[in-house]
Amino acid sequence: VIEAPRKPWSERLGNMAFALLIVGVGLQIASIVLRGFATDRFPLGNMYEFVTMATAAAMLIGLVLLRKQSYRSLWVFVLVVVIPLMFMAATVLYADAAPVVPALRSFWLPIHVTIVATGSGIFLVSGVASLLFLLRIRQPKGEETSGFWGKVAERLPDAQTLDRLAYKTTIIAFPLFGAGVILGAIWAEAAWGRFWGWDPKETVSFIAWVIYAAYLHARATSGWRDTRAAWINIAGFVAMLFNLFIINMVVSGLHSYAGLN
Q1: Any idea where the domains of the chain sit in the sequence?
Q2: Rg (CA), the chain
C-alpha cells in the first residue's frame, strides 16, 4: 500500500486556520441574528451594529474570493483591519440593546443600511488588496528580497493577482453602495421631505462613491491602471473610514444615530 504524501505543516496549519475562520464568521453572523432578537428589530440602528454588519460582509466576501490556497496569505492583512474594527465595535462603539429612535422605525432601515454596510465591508477587502498591490509591485517575484516589508511581499501573490482582486471586489461593491445611496435618498424624501440636503453623511457618501467611480475609470484607462488607480482606490477606502468614524462621531447632522453616549 502506497501512502499518500503528508501535507507540510504550513499547509495543514493554514487549513485549520481557514476552518477556524469559517467558525468565527458563523459566530459573528449568529451574534447579528441574536442582536436582532434582543432588540426586537433589524440590528442596524447604531454604529456598533453597522460595524458588526460591515465586518461580517468583509469576512463573507473574503471566504468566497480568498478560498484558494494561493490567497490564504491575504487573510492576515484582511484581519489586521477587521479585528481592530470588531474590537472597537465591542468596546468604544458598543450600545446596549434598545429600540431605535422614531426616525429609524421604517422598513427602509433594513434595506438601505444593509446594502450600505455590505458595500462598505466589500470595499474594505478592495482597499486592503490595493495596499498589498502597491507593496507587491515594489518587490516583483524573482528579485532578491531584503528587510521586513520585502519578506512580507515575498509571501504575497503576484501584483497582477492583487490588482484583479481589488478590481473584482470594487465591481461588486460599487453598484451595491450606489444603490444604497439612491435608496437612502428615497427614504430621506419620505422622512424629511427632500431627496438630498447635503447633510455631512450624504455629502461624504457621495464623495466616496465618486472616488470609486474614478477608480473604475482609471482602472480601464491606459497609463492609469497600475499604481495611480490603486492610490485612487485607497483614497476611496480612506473616505469610507472618514465617513464611518469622523462624520458619525464628530460631525453632527441628520444622520447622527451613532448610539454613543
Answers
A1: 14-94+104-249
A2: 20
